[in-house]
UniProtKB/TrEMBL annotation:
Residue intervals of the GHMP kinase N-terminal domain: 57-139
InterPro entries attached to this UniProt entry: GHMP_kinase_C_dom, GHMP_kinase_C_sf, GHMP_kinase_N_dom, GHMP_knse_ATP-bd_CS, Homoserine_kinase, Ribosomal_Su5_D2-typ_SF, Ribsml_uS5_D2-typ_fold_subgr
Catalytic activity: L-homoserine + ATP = O-phospho-L-homoserine + ADP + H(+)
Protein name per the record: Homoserine kinase
Length: 289
């Protein structure tokens, strides 16, 4: 028997919640897995080009980690994967691969591992909990990880919230975007971010759209990553005046995200503004709602 799972992409941080907040997006990857005589891996769709199809493949390796943890021996697998998610753009594509592989492998052997265990394992592989948490639990996920155990709470974001993502046509690795971060921060900036992050969680939980713009401000990572994403700083500053409820760098970037009220009349104006601002910096970008 074969197992098929559908996993959502995710956006992480949402401004101030660095390595803590994530949100699932309606953009998906699909992983299919079954036992086989000999391992075969087939990849479909333009976004998986160049990914290995031997046993160094991440889906295969993660599946084996699940089998090891569960004490089950399944050395050979038939794996098939399709993805709609652009790679290395800040949309959590690696997290969807890890979660897809874990959920499929666990299901294949009768689900011996609990979701919380999968979450901790996935976080240890990914090294931050926000994308894997959102992909695994869906909705809006608040995550905490101390290097060992990962904890989370998740809930559905308010219904009238729409998400616009502007995806620049260049890749930015998470490693490079993390290298741009400072080793130390001032106490003042830490306090600034705690206030915003807490307010953002409360605002999303209670539908306080009016607080989003203030709550999405950040001094912890976006200012340091601005140089890697031309046009971003201006967009984050201006987007609330162009119809966005709030805006942020999506994960480690380069995608930039805006929250928009479903009834906002000038959605198209906001979208054009964001694309044109990047174009003025020589960057072409695709958009998705
Ligand atoms: N929280 C992570 C970061 C997300 O900002 O580096 C990476 O997708």
């Amino acid at each position: 028997n074969s197992v098929r799972v559908k996993i959502p992409a995710s956006t992480a941080n949402l401004g101030p919640g660095f390595d803590s907040l994530g949100m699932a997006l309606s953009l998906y990857s699909y992983v299919e897995m079954k036992r086989a005589e000999e391992t075969t891996i087939s990849l479909h769709g333009e976004h998986l080009k160049g990914i290995p199809t031997d046993k160094t493949n991440l889906v295969y390796k993660v599946a084996q980690a699940v089998f090891n943890k569960a004490g089950v021996h399944v050395p050979e697998l038939e794996i098939s994967m399709y993805s709609e998610i652009p790679l290395t753009r800040g949309l959590g594509s690696s997290a969807t691969t890890i979660i897809g592989a874990m959920v499929a492998a666990n299901e294949l052997i009768g689900s011996p591992l609990m979701r919380e265990e999968l979450f901790t394992m996935a976080t240890q592989i990914e090294k931050h909990p926000d994308n894997v948490g959102a992909s695994l639990f869906g909705g809006f996920a608040v995550c905490a990880w101390d290097g060992n155990d990962a904890h989370h709470i998740s809930f559905d974001p308010p219904e009238q919230l729409e998400v616009l993502v502007v995806i620049p046509q260049f890749e930015l690795s998470t490693t490079k975007a993390r290298e741009a971060l400072p080793r130390e921060l001032s106490f003042q900036d830490a306090v600034y971010n705690i206030g915003r992050t807490s307010m953002l969680v409360g605002a999303l939980a209670s539908g306080r759209y009016d607080l989003l713009s203030a709550a999405m401000k950040d001094k912890l990572h976006q200012p340091y990553r601005a140089a890697l994403v031309p046009g971003m700083a201006e967009i984050l500053e201006e987007a609330p005046r162009k119809g966005a409820l709030g805006a942020a760098l999506s994960g480690a970037g380069p995608t930039v995200l805006a929250f928009v009220h479903q009834e906002e009349r000038d959605k198209h104006g906001l979208e054009t503004y964001m694309v044109e601002t990047m174009r003025a910096q020589g960057i072409e970008a695709d958009t998705m709602w």
